[in-house]
Write a structure and sequence with these properties.
This is Protease production enhancer protein. This protein is of the alpha/beta class and 122 residues long. The protein is 45% helix and 23% strand. It has a single domain, classed as Rossmann fold (3-Layer(aba) Sandwich), CATH 3.40.50.2300. The chain has a five-stranded parallel β-sheet, with helices on both faces. α2 runs parallel beside α3 and α3 packs parallel to α4. The radius of gyration is 13 Å and the shape is globular. The relative contact order is 0.18.
Length: 122
């Protein structure tokens, strides 16, 4: 059973991604939690273990790059999937260097890109 965290300050995106995940993997998901900034993501990962974290690159308080770095530093086995509207190579590179396993541009997110993320867990 997958434990999933969505860290994104866009409430509509969080709801849409949560819905998509439940449609694709409803029998395999133990729970989905969501937070609105990187600092909250770091804090919740200190209390709960997650299999996969969908991390927005741009968030208030603490951005996804710094949050990813801190989370992966404490748990190198967690799968962090960077999600962003940014297509610039600098954002992609920074997130991957921070420890994200892959990067999905929000506009391109669909069932197939989500499925590829779950293949990283197995």
């Amino acid at each position: 059973m997958y434990k999933i965290l969505i860290a994104d300050d866009n409430h509509h995106f969080t709801k849409a991604l949560s819905y998509l995940l439940k449609e694709l993997y409803k029998e395999k998901i133990q729970f989905i939690r969501s937070v609105s900034n990187g600092e909250k993501a770091v804090e919740i990962t200190k209390k709960e273990n997650f299999d996969i974290i969908f991390m927005d690159a741009d968030m208030p308080v603490m951005n996804g790059i710094e949050a990813t770095r801190k989370i992966v530093d404490k748990n190198r086995f967690v799968i962090v999937v960077a999600v962003s509207f940014h297509q610039e190579m600098e954002y992609i590179q920074e997130m991957l260097e921070a420890g994200a396993r892959t990067y999905i541009i929000k506009e391109d997110m669909d069932g197939k890109s989500i499925e590829n993320c779950f293949k990283l867990i197995v």
